[in-house]
Amino acid sequence: MTEKTIHIKIITPEKIVYEDDADAVYAKGISGSFGILPDHIPFMSVLDIGIVKVEKSGQGEKISVMGGTFQFKNNEAIILTEAAERGTDIDTARAKLAKERAEAIIGSSETIKDIKTANAALARAMARLKAASKG
Ligand code: ATP
Question: Angle at the Cα of 86 (from 29 to 25), degrees rounded to 5?
Fold first, then answer.
């Protein structure tokens, strides 16, 4: 008998960033991190900026997602997000620059709006660096 898997799709307005069958998927919801195995009951969550980790044949792959929604039903997980990148596709120099830029703004800004915008940019850069990191 073949093992059950989860069909995962990570979709942005521009393209399908990831589509594959996996043994498990882990993500960061706005009210906490969660993991889904095959045959889980239907489940939905709003995602935080962070990492989606997909496990397949003992191997893990990380994909950065910039918030969005996660829906699981009938062993299919659909993630809709504004932007997502597979770890191997991430330009780490660009993410490091974005992180430094955001930190400089956070350290020098006086308006709440600028700080909020920079905090979101910092979270995006940190998620990208985490997705690109080994392990
Ligand atoms: P930056 O300031 O470097 O543009 P950003 O957080 O403002 O970063 P987004 O607006 O979230 O970027 O994304 C714009 C597009 O660029 C998206 O298609 C996203 O996937 C891509 N992108 C952003 N940063 C990176 C990166 N470090 N590596 C690869 N693709 C990236």
Answer: 40
Q: Do 38 and 73 sit in the same domain of this protein?
A: yes
pLDDT in tens, the chain (135 residues): 567 999 999 999 999 999 999 999 999 999 999 999 999 999 999 999 999 999 999 999 999 999 999 999 999 999 999 999 999 999 999 999 999 999 999 999 889 999 999 999 999 999 999 999 987
Complete DSSP assignment for 97-113? HHHHHHHHHHHH--SHH
Query: To test the ligand 1 pocket, which listed residue (18, 81, 128) has its Cβ within 8 A of the most ligand atoms?
Result: 128
Q: Look up the domain containing 111 and give its range.
A: 90-132
For residue 96, what is the domain's CATH number? 1.20.5
Q: Is 83 in the pocket of ligand 1 (CB under 6 A)?
A: yes
